[in-house]
Amino acid sequence: MQKKFTPRKKIRSVLKSCVVHALTVMMFFGVAAAHDHESSLLEKEIRVDQQLGSVSGRVTDANTQQPLPGVNIIEKGTSNGTTTDEDGRYTLALSEENVTLVFSFIGYEGQELPVNGRTVIDVSFQQSVQSLEEVVVVGYGSQQKSQVTGAISSVSSKEITELPITNARQALQGRVAGVDVVQAGSKPGAGPQIRIRGRRSFNATNDPLYVVDGIPLSGGIDDINPQDIASMEILKDASATAIYGSRGANGVVIITTRRGRAGKTQISYDNFIGTNSELGRIEVFDGPGFAEYKRESRRAIGQYALPSGTSSPEEDAKIFEPVELESIQMGRSTDYVDGMLRNGLIQSHQIGIAGGSEKTTFNISGNYFKDVGVIKKQDFTRYTFRVNLDHQINEKLKIGISSLFVSSLRNGENFNPLGGAMAENPLGKPYDDNGNLIFLPTNDGLRTNPFAEIVEGAQVDETKRYRMFNSIYGEWDIVDGLKYRVNFGPDVTIRRSGRFTGAQTNARRGGAATGSVFEEFVFNYTLENILSYSKKFNDVHNLNLTALQSIQRDRYET
After folding, report:
1. Which of 18, 188, 308, 494 is surrounded by the most beta carbons within 10 Å?
2. Predicted pLDDT at 7
3. 113: three-class secondary structure by DSSP
4. R_g of the chain computed on alpha carbons
5. Are 243 and 216 in contact (CB under 8 A)?
6. What are the pLDDT digits (tens) for 210-220?
7. If residue 19 lies in a helix (H) or strand (E), which one and from where to where?
8. Residue from 302, 461, 445, 309 nearest 377 by CA
9. Are 453 and 462 in contact (CB under 8 A)?
């Protein structure tokens, strides 16, 4: 179990276009030079007469209290307006008395506020319920929440980013009815298991089908950075098999990643840092406790003459070896388990750039994630880079691409020295007087020094993974209500695992060292052609038809 302290920082800024400002300044001075001095003074006097005071304020998000840059503020019925700066602040000179200000921003509910003689008006924006809450993704389309059953659940990006989760699957833990999320292990890089409405098979897999940006994955979603997820929809029961057939028998998890939106370019930075420590330890004997345990075992068979609770050097010499007697006399006790553990560290750093125009929108992000485990020689490092791009060619055609690039390194996936440490004799001597490691702390030839397992180079258990996942689409609005879409999703994964066990380890006990390498190459692609028709009759009845042709091919080499 992990104990985390998670100070979260979010910094948002707006990139200003220096070129546009430069051109504006040049045009201004060009016009001023073309007019005489008297005309310029007359224009200034007219503007002063028309400005009947000014109003200023700050615009923020009602939920996060963060400033909103790029919000449009305009006098209703006129062209007099302005926008908020990077701190969400604005100042607008008024041209009339008793005007009404109209505030608007993409993705938020607009507001109209009368001035009524005020000079300061602060505005708190609510996110648009219609655009952000009422629509959920259901396979090859979307529906309003009011039209779906309890067999479909949704998790929003706000819920995903509330906690410093290290794996996308952890976002579902405790949030969706009928979905069990169980952590399979505590090693860094280990993902949890997801079971939707229990197990369905004794021999086949019970994992759900994962669909990312419309493309089914042949594998888990551990490579996806949770900060890049906009929403997760979980299809349960017949709703899954009705859309995806037998592949959806264990349920379907549909993931939609963040897209760009028209407006000023925004840069964001998100990070968290936390610590790990063991929840508890299995209680084992210390030196004196093990000595008394060994005496009692010999009393049971008549090999130790003194009664319980008593001892003597003469009787101890009969059952203890010299190094154990030395430890008893010196009061020396070795805690091997403590020597294997440390305080772990988890950190995540992400930089994102999002924005675009009416024609083209983009969302680019890069993430660095590091998880250092509580057991030495166990850690996990992941680098992710994502590019989401959408372009409206004309009124009928739209194209886009989502690309994910991942590089990860995992150490200690199959390495766990705690078992040997808990079974080791605490009366042994792990180091000599010069601080050199003693490979056999006692005369027991089957018990080697557990500290030898964590010597640099003694055990190497390394797994490297590289992945490139893409979702490419094109949409054609043929006529009103009739749409054609093509999806193409190539996915490439390269994995290399190496294992080395040195001679001075418990597995080899001085014998020849061993090594092995495992490599795999996975390439799969999905190609889909989707024809959909949607029509609403009399504002009451809805007709939705979908025709789909889909092919998926996998190639696995090892």
Report:
1. 188
2. 41
3. strand
4. 33
5. no
6. 999 989 887 77
7. helix 18-34
8. 461
9. no
